[in-house]
């Protein structure tokens, strides 16, 4: 690309695709929760770490299905937004006291937020679904040693909803081309 002096555009960094991709990511998370747990989402307690695009999408869908959602986030604004959306909210610094209450944790924070010291506070057999991009926020080796089930669920849109994921990417690429003046929709004669 550089030798040909062509522009390189990472469509995954486009805010509209990041927002839209949160939906199939959240739905893929729901699929994992239903498949890997032996309980319904309804009347179950969930801890969602982070309240960005994906955290909001996951928390909303869990709540709509009757789950009881607690959001732990660094930002006071994110915690306030989670509360406004009907979730309980706590700062990340409260994790040591919160974790013993949850057997299902969904991490969306791409930073090491679940090291061994915190994982030890989860009940035995707890499920962690880590949706954060590489390297994730969970110490996966420690989780395995502690008998916890930790899934690093990468690329869920393409794995769980490939047609939707492809359509979202196509829409984004067409928008990029339109913005650059390189695409004009052709009408059939």
Word description of this protein:
The chain is of the alpha/beta class. It has one domain (27-179): Rossmann fold (3-Layer(aba) Sandwich). The chain has eight helices and six strands; from the N terminus they run αβαβαβαβαβαβαα. The protein has a six-stranded parallel beta sheet with strand order 3-2-1-4-5-6. The longest helix has 22 residues, at 15-36. The mean pLDDT is 94.
Task: Explain the layout of strands and helices.
Elements lengths: L14 H22 L8 E5 L3 H12 L3 E6 L2 H9 L3 E4 L3 H4 L5 E4 L8 H4 L7 E4 L9 H6 L3 E4 L3 H5 L1 H18 L10
Parallel strand pairs: 1-2, 1-4, 2-3, 4-5, 5-6
Question: Can you give me a brief rundown of this structure?
Answer:
By secondary structure, this protein is of the alpha/beta class. The chain is built from 8 helices and 6 strands.
CATH architecture: 3-Layer(aba) Sandwich
> Rounded to an integer, what's the Rg over CA atoms?
19 Å
Approximate helicity band = 40-55%
CATH level 1 class label: Alpha Beta
Question: Regions with pLDDT < 50 over 5+ consecutive residues?
Answer: none
Q: Which sequence of SSEs, written as H and E, runs from N to C?
A: HEHEHEHEHEHEHH
Keywords:
189 residues; Rossmann fold; 6 strands; elongated
């Amino acid at each position: 690309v550089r030798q040909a002096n062509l522009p390189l555009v990472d469509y995954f960094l486009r805010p509209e695709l990041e927002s839209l991709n949160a939906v199939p990511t959240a739905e893929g998370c729901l699929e994992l929760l239903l498949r890997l747990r032996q309980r319904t989402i309804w009347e179950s307690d969930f801890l969602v770490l982070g309240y960005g695009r994906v955290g909001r999408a996951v928390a909303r869908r869990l709540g709509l299905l009757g789950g009881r959602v607690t959001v732990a986030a660094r930002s006071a604004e994110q915690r306030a937004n989670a509360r406004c959306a009907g979730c309980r909210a706590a700062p990340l610094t409260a994790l040591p006291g919160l974790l013993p209450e949850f057997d299902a944790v969904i991490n969306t924070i791409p930073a090491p937020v679940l090291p061994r010291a915190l994982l030890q506070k989860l009940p035995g057999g707890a499920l962690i679904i880590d949706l954060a991009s590489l390297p994730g926020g969970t110490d996966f080796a420690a989780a395995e040693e502690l008998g916890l089930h930790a899934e690093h669920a990468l690329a869920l849109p393409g794995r769980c909803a490939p047609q939707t994921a492809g359509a979202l990417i196509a829409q984004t690429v067409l928008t990029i081309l339109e913005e650059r003046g390189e695409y004009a929709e052709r009408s059939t004669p």
